[in-house]
Amino acid sequence: MAKTKIPVYDIYSIIPGHTQQDLLMERLGPYVQKHQHLHSQHGHSFYHLVLFTKGAGTHTIDFTHFTVQPYQVYFMIPGQVHSWHFEGGVEGYLVHFSPAFFQSFLNDQQYLARFDFFKGDSEAAVLKIPATLRETVVQLFEHMLQELEKPRESGLDMIRTYLLQFFIQLERSTATGMRHNIPPQKQLLLNNFQQLIHQHYNTIRLPKEYAELLYITPNHLNALCQDLLGKTAGEVIRDRVLLEAKRLLVNKELTITEIAWHLNFQDNSYFNRFFKKNTGLTPEAFRKQFSH
Q: What is the pLDDT of residue 178?
């Protein structure tokens, strides 16, 4: 049902007339002025990042609030939702790129998942650019804009290399790159688990069922999640269901009963108990808090 979803944009639909399917990059100030409708909750089918160099206000990623600060950058992966409420003018840079944008360039199709800010955790996706790195970062973004404004041979490949420089330098300069030296096989297994949850959270709720799909034991899956995420496998599944509930509650066209049915809860009261236990709010109270 179309009405069960927050608006989700692809790179084509977010800007009518845009013809480049894998990349969109603009200065933030003019973009915000041209696209006022994008201030409310919406999702993307692409990767999205914004670097603020000036401005104030707030923005949310998957219902976590952040205060806008100069030289703050935030990252989003496909499927996440966000909104923003700026106070006065903002300046900076905005980049959208499709999942295929780097897959055609890098042999390792899971490469972006090595960065904590591209793992779908909103708390790890908002970073302050260190003062020592700001001039370098601005130069990288200006170089990318120049490649778009004056197209030359292999221009998109140059933009890819500039973006990768930005990701790596940011990882080196912040705490996000220092948590774990995660073995690739563990990271791949975790990524596969998270992808399975995204596909089946409505119908599969037990860790042992996901463990069977991954050909590992439930204890192995639980230890993996505890080690890499600090959560049990059951908590990871629960959090995904809870996130989808929040996304649906923002849509005023849906009743609480319809949302409970959509999320495969046995009845409305069970859904209410689940939501209040994990958020401290009833579904109706959450809707009033986040719907505008």
A: 43
- Tell me if 264 sits within 8 A of 203, measured CB to CB: yes
Distance, CA of 102 to CA of 21 (rounded, Å): 13
Within the chain, how many helices (H) and strands (E) appear? 12, 10
The CATH code of the domain that includes 169 is 2.60.120.280
C-alpha to C-alpha distance for 116 and 114, rounded to whole angstroms: 6
Give the helix ranges, DSSP H, for 201-262. Answer: 207-214, 218-229, 233-249, 256-262
79: left (phi over 0), alpha (psi -120 to 50) or beta: left
Q: Give the residue numbers spanning the domain of 117.
A: 2-178
User: Has residue 182 got a pLDDT over 80?
Assistant: no
Give the residues across from 54 on adjacent strands.
91
Domain count, the chain: 2
Question: Model-level pTM?
Answer: 0.81
Q: What is the pLDDT of residues 105-145, one digit of tens each?
A: 888 877 888 888 998 888 889 999 999 999 999 999 999 99
Kind of pairing between the strands at 42-44 and 8-9: parallel
Q: Are residues 113 and 40 in the same domain?
A: yes
Cα–Cα dist 66/81, whole Å? 14
pLDDT beyond 90 at 27:
yes
Final residue of a domain: which of 137, 160, 178?
178
Q: Quick one: 165 and 268 in the same domain?
A: no
